[in-house]
Amino acid sequence: MKFTLARILVVDDDEVMRTFVVNSLRRLGIQAIETAVDGASALRAMISFKPDLVLTDIHMQPMNGIEFVQQLRKHANPLVKNMKVIFMSADASTDTLEQALPLGTFGYIVKPPRPETLRVKLEQALK
């Protein structure tokens, strides 16, 4: 799939970061973008928006990004269960990486994401 045609769900509790990521995606030519403020609202958006890929923060309340992806991986719907996910976080600690990477994701972007990093990660995930 050409990444500019992808439907992207951006999950982040920080409004400034959410807006920054959405604007970065738009500059890359992606138009189909929805947002969510935490894992719980992202789960609801998964059903209505049907994204091709999710970009999610890790540290959010009440449901963080790791819990959100764990819920995805347990979902009965195979499209939700196998959703392509890229984590975004300012936290690049070994502890966080050890929790995040085994969840079958397509990478980890340190925030704030650079547009070229976003492009490369999206292209890799959407092949």
Describe what you observe in this structure.
This protein has helices at 15-27, 39-49, 65-74, 78-81, 94-100, 115-125, and strands spanning 7-11, 32-36, 53-57, 84-89, 108-110. 44% of the residues lie in helices and 19% in strands. It has 127 residues and is an alpha/beta fold. The protein has a 5-stranded parallel β-sheet with strand order 2-1-3-4-5, with helices on both faces. It has one domain: Response regulator (Rossmann fold), CATH 3.40.50. It is built from 6 helices and 5 strands, in the order βαβαβααβαβα.
What integer is the average pLDDT? 92
The name CATH uses for the topology is Rossmann fold
CATH architecture title: 3-Layer(aba) Sandwich
C-alpha termini separation: 6 Å
Q: Regions with pLDDT < 50 over 5+ consecutive residues?
A: none
The tally of beta strands, per DSSP, is: 5
Pfam families: Response_reg (PF00072)
Keywords: Phosphoprotein
Organism: Rhodoferax ferrireducens
Protein name: Response regulatory domain-containing protein
